[in-house]
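User: quick one, fold this
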Amino acid sequence: CRIINQNTGTPASVAGIRIASRRQTIAPAGQYIPDGFEISNNEIVTTAALQGHGINMTGSTSGSNFDTGVGNSNWKVNNNDIWARIRGVFVNQGLADSEIRNNNIVIGRSQAGVNLSNTGYLIGAVHVNNANSPPANTFTVANNRVFVHSNNTSAGAFGPVGIGVTSMGSGTDRICNVYNNMIHLMTTNANNNSTGSFRGIWATSAIS
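Assistant:
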C-alpha cells in the first residue's frame, strides 16, 4: 500500500499508521489492546505538521491508566519504505516479542514535492519508549537502512538519533537486540549536539 498523510494542522502527533491501545470506562468498558498485527511492504509518507510519524504505536486512557504489563505484543514492522518528519517508528506502548526489520527509513530529508523539515524533540528513525512494563520478552531491531536529518536550531536533546531505546520496562528479563542496521545521521545546526543527542544507537542508562 501507499499511505500519505499531508495534514497541514499542528497537532501533537500525526502518523501514516497509528496503532492505538485504549482503556475506557463507558460501555463497553475494558482494555482494548491490538496484538499480533503485521505492517509490511508499504510506502508510508508523513509530511504532516511538525510531529509527523511514519508508524506510531501509542495509547489513550479514559478514566484510568492501563494495567501494568499491558501493551501490544507479537507484532512486526518489516519491509517498509518510511518517510517522515520526526520519527519513522515510535513504540510507546508494549514490545513483547516483536520486531522491526528490513525497513528503509528516511527522516527530515526533503525532496521535490515532499517537505520533511523538522524541529521536534528526539528526532529519530526508531524510538522505543515502552511506557508500561511488559512481561519478559525479546524485541529486535535489525537490518534496517536509516537516514536521519535534524533541522533543529534549538539547544537540547533534539536529535538526530538513529535507533533509540529509552525504556524496555522494569525487570531484568527483557532483551532488546539491535544489529546489522546501516545508519546515516546529519544535522544542520551545532546546537543539536549540546547534550550529546547526536547518536547512531542510543540506549539509556537503564538499558543493558
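User: anything notable?
Assistant: The chain has a mean pLDDT of 78.
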